[in-house]
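Memo to structure team: turn this sequence into structure tokens by end of day. - J.P.
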Amino acid sequence: MDTLPKMLDLCFPGVSYKLNKSDWVFYFENGSEIWIAGLDDKERTEKILGKEFATMFLNEASQISWSARNLALTRLAQKCEYEINGEKQVLQLKMYYDLNPPSKAHWAYQVFHLGRDPETRQALADQHMFSWIKMNPVDNAENLNPDYIRELQNQSGRMRRRFLDGEYGEVAPGQLWTEEMIDRYRCDGDDELPEMQRIVVAIDPSGASDEDNKENDEIGIVVVGLGSDGRAYLMEDLTCKGGPGTWGAIAVSAYERHMADRIVAETNYGGDMVRFVVQAAKPGVPFKKLTASRGKVVRAEPIAGLHEQGKIRFSGRFVDLEEELCAFTTTGYVGEGSPNRADAFVWAVTELFPSVMKMEKMKQKRDAVERRSARAVAGGSTGWLGA
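Reply from structure team:
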């Protein structure tokens, strides 16, 4: 909506057009039209069904699902005829795509690079119709601010590979979160969030002190709200490296700034220490102690499931947290260090969705029963063998 008018004025100054800003349609003197539409949700996707197109361009295809792409393809059906030297020609139908490459699990990688159907995994019958080209910021450096290139170069490895090098991310076997899953349910900075029914500040503590914390793990601190639409929204990642005096003040400040309902924290590491730190920073702050009875991955699995269902949204980009989430697999955490940000995020969402908490308690009870049964069987066997 912004780039296209500028591009037309700069690159095609002699081509006149009219723009209908209500429907976002460009009308040209030769009868051609350019329609702007969306494929980012079901309602917007359905709106293109009554139209036919001769050429389609899917912008930011990493945000478009395979099913939405296929639905759009059914609209690539317009027959356009023209003459060259008196001979009638039919315009070849074409579909163009662009994207910042997500992980190799995305349909774009499967189709354009592996030449196979993302659902059936069978080879495409018309592979010759698909081709691709890589265009990176350095290829356009003469038109970019040098500070922008330096900023991309200083990003984390995952972000640098994607936005500077144009490389697809590797997919770990059994990965719980993927880049495309997170991107699919991301809110842009301009998106207005719904009214929040509940907001929690979650803490995942470590043993750092205020005086000497260089070698200690970071203290995970995140702010997550439950919107009136029933979705959880990650609003801030305030993870820091510091002692109780530092992270306690940060957590309480977030509680006040967001008018949160309570602060929650995993207390296996420090027992009631976290409660004391929070209460010292601000007496009377509502606090809830959470206790881990299972490993990190087992706790994270139902949260990843909620995210995949679209029940969790990120309000902005949280590079470090996203890297930690993408390192969770069904067989363990494969990232570097401790995933304190991700742990705090999992605790926050678990608190906001009581059904997850209920599942956790049921699993605790089942595990306790199984342990008691195992001890009883072991005891009986020993007695029989002794006899």
